[in-house]
Amino acid sequence: MKHIKFTDEHGSFTLRQPENTSYLYFPLASEAGLKSSVTPNLGGDAKMDQETFLLEPVSSENLHNNRSSRNFWCVADKTDIFSATGVSDGQEGAKFTPRQEESLLTAGFMWQKTERVSKSMQLASAVTIFIPKDSNVEIMHISIQNQSDRTRTLTSYAAIPIYGRSADNIRDHRNVTSMLHRIFVKEQGIFVCPAMSFDEKGHRPGSRIYYAMGVNGSGQAPERFYPTVEDFIGEGGSFTHPRAVHEEYPGYPAPWEGGGTEAMGAFRFETVTLAPGEQAEYILLLGTEAEDNKENISRIFQAYNTPAKVTKALEETKAYWQKKADVGFHTKDKDFDCLMKWVSFQPFLRRLFGCSFLPHHDYGRGGRGWRDLWQDCLSLLLLEPESVRQMIVKNYGGVRIDGTNATIIGSGDGNFLADRNGITRVWMDHALWPLMTTKLYIQQTGDIQILNQQVPYFKDAQVLRGTALDELWNTEYGNQQLTAENQVYVGSVLEHLLIQQLAAFYEVGSHNIYRLRDADWNDALDMASEKGESVAFTCAYAGNLLELASLIHLLDHSSMEHTAELLEEIEVLLCSDPEIYGDVSKKQEILADYASQCRHNISGKRASFSLSVLAVNLTQKATWLMDHLRSQEWLEGPEEEGWFNSYYDNQGQQAEGFFPSGVRMMLTGQVFAIMSGVAEEAHIRKIVKSADRYLYRKEIGGYRLNTDFHELKLDMGRMFGFAYGEKENGSVFSHMAVMYANALYRRGFVKEGWKALKALADAALNFETSRIFPGVPEYFRADGRGMYHYLTGAASWYMMTMITEAFGVRGEAGDLILYPKLLAEQFDANGKASITVPFAGKRFFITYENKNGKDFGAYTIGSAFCGQEELSVCEDSFALLPRSMIAALPEETHCITVEII
Ligand code: G1P
After folding, report:
1. 794 C-alpha vs ligand 1 centroid, how far in Å?
2. Does this model's pTM top 0.85?
């Protein structure tokens, strides 16, 4: 029996008895800042940021532990006590017994509904919770139905514990900070205004209001209030057995004022009489506003104080998010298509939540890292390209003149903060991602001129690629690089890219491989900063050098100017003597020379460089690197196996190979060797064979990140401290598994790429083991459970790979290319596979017709039409829609049909 059932084409789904599965949570958020997690029992939390938690912050273990959840109680005929969210001692005790209530969860983008039926009490409840797209309020719409055949009285209570302070106060003055609470009861609800907040940043007067308001279906306000936890649970009571409900405590009428203790958004509504089958409705509004914006609270109340208004807002919310993630897949497998809806929605969740603020993501203080920032742009580029140019340009302002970058990222685009504590960490992969994103941007839009856009450089005390401090720098200097004349220096995006790629080229360790520094993509490879080298990312950078060369060619061909004005200091990095490429110490000297010229201020002088000469220079470096990698890092195994070593540890030893303790193989090195072109076809065949043998476990999502090293490698990183199968140590880490698929597709290994993608999708959809709602989780652990759900870069890459590789819908210098790499098994019973996707501001519905059921490799493109217009087919393999033609199309959905023969 399927557990998760999709109910519409937007990915909405149902799950019976969701409370019987642990650790389930669902994200809700608005564009205005409120972010919530909500469990099937309405546990979870709600916050604006690290310092502004409306509900108590939860980590994954709190999901089954906490009883302080959003609750709604009903007392029927003064005797039957029922929690509409299923959180009461009686309901908990009935779990897994024949007395357990029936429950059903239904959810879609940014909304969740839970329904419960208590046979013994003859009551049914439905609780819908969502956050409107533009308000910082959680709306709960509750209905309670009398399922008996007699008329009954019903008294209902809302019960929301209001935490109202910083997440840090969980283990830092939780009790003292409750003393800061000032609580006001007004007609519509309970308002908590902390008098002040204090932490290491200082003491500040309170500036926030947290609230819980309520109204019944006929517009009546609550009649009695329980504004503190103690008032509600009573002496010796608990959240699952609140004495106010069980013993009908009188509470207080509004108005009331008090404080100094844990606050509670609890109130009782007037008792109503329900005829058989009749239902009562209630609306709860939980939110927070800044003190100086408090009139918003009454605006919100007015906007959502009737069931009709709430229903309308819910429909608007659904429509808004469905429109955002406006990409649709139609293949043979409907469940897969629905899963893709969620995968396409996940990048929006990551934009809103960053890498924090869901129960597994109990770290960070909001925001995203540099690498995530750039990769999340990939999906935006495919869905909302208009906003991306500015984002990209601003993000380049985070690059330092030595090619490293700021890693402390404030809110908003391009707001990079100085590292004031002198605790630097340099991730050697960081310079890689901007080029990947910029390249996709240029391909999708044709805007090659972005390379000429002038952008400043970031400046703080960190110099010489994070190895020294600039004593002359202080906050007065500011965060932008200055010239000798104390002018802010601006250089082109191209210059930023060149500095990033070239500086990295020279930062090598003893094997002439790029140094690992404090980690690469794998954040948990953080203990090999002296002698560690990352072969995996050296491959990736080699690929980047070629990509940059091709962009420079494109620029050269599309501009009148055939030169670029670049900072004079760069000259030394453009050395083209192959003898030097092979000489580790010379390379290090060159980098030291460049970095020390840029230690404080730079000359600001520019020299002119020929674009074609620059491209040749980069190509020459890439070619040298690739040869070096192939000859030095390939590990040939028996039986047509083999793969690339991915790392050197802190003792300068190769990490992979055939060891007495077993085979050591890592996926990362293979991914970037394949993606960059370092791996040749013969290599790829052997890599695939080895990965299938040593890393592939279909039932847990496919390709694991590494084999079990059976060693606590303190000379590599904390990943080896994780038990094997967890997170970066040998789980099926979705992001890398998807990048593996992407790399294989790019190189034409389509069956192999699809195998990697499909294994992930199958594992995610297999609720029996994954135990997650639809979507791709950060990783699958050894028993197949999906972990760290929703917020993962894997989603952007999955979506991108499906669109640009499997369906082959992508830009090439702004034109639209349709180059399907679909397998016969992906076409439906009528031989069709289609995709709806935006491109260049227009919306396309593209259908591939494969009447003869052929596989990629065996088919060619017969013809292609956009409406009535025939498209040109190139090399029998792809159809092309020129930019000029797209620009002339009206604003509507355009059908493209491609015949595969
Ligand atoms: C996370 C981080 C990402 C990092 C990866 C591996 O991946 O966000 O920056 O590279 O772990 O350590 P994600 O959650 O994006 O899949």
Report:
1. 8
2. yes
Both tokens of 56, joined, read 């108590």
Structure confidence at residue 420 (pLDDT) = 67
- DSSP letter string, 265-326: EEEEPPPEEE-TT-EEEEEEEEEEEEGGGTHHHHHHHHHTSSHHHHHHHHHHHHHHHHHHT-
Mutational pocket test of ligand 1: of 371, 375, 516, 735, the residue with most ligand atoms within 8 Å of the beta carbon: 735
DSSP state of 521: S
- Inter-residue contact 654 to 680 (CB < 8 Å): no
Q: In what order do the strands lie in the sheet with 878-881?
A: 809-812, 815-818, 878-881, 872-874
> 521 in ligand 1 pocket by Cβ < 6 Å?
yes
For residue 412, how many other CB atoms are within 10 A of its CB?
Answer: 7
Tokens of 662: 């077993």
Residue 346 CA to ligand 1 center (angstroms) comes to: 14
What whole-number percentage of the chain has pLDDT above 70? 100
Mean pLDDT value across residues 841-854: 97
Helical segments of 140-293, H only: 174-178, 229-233, 243-246
Please state, in angstroms and rounded to a whole number, the distance separating the CA atoms of residues 650 and 669. Answer: 17
**Domain ranges for the chain:** 4-324, 637-668+694-802, 807-900
Q: Which fold has domain 4-324?
A: Beta-galactosidase; Chain A, domain 5 (2.70.98)
Q: Which of 366, 349, 335 is nearest to 770 (CA)?
A: 335
d(CA 502, CA 122) in angstroms, rounded, equals 72
- Does domain 807-900 sit in CATH 2.40.128.630? no
Ligand 1: does its nearest atom lie under 6 Å from the Cβ of 369? yes
Do the Cβ atoms of 107 and 773 come closer than 8 Å?
A: yes
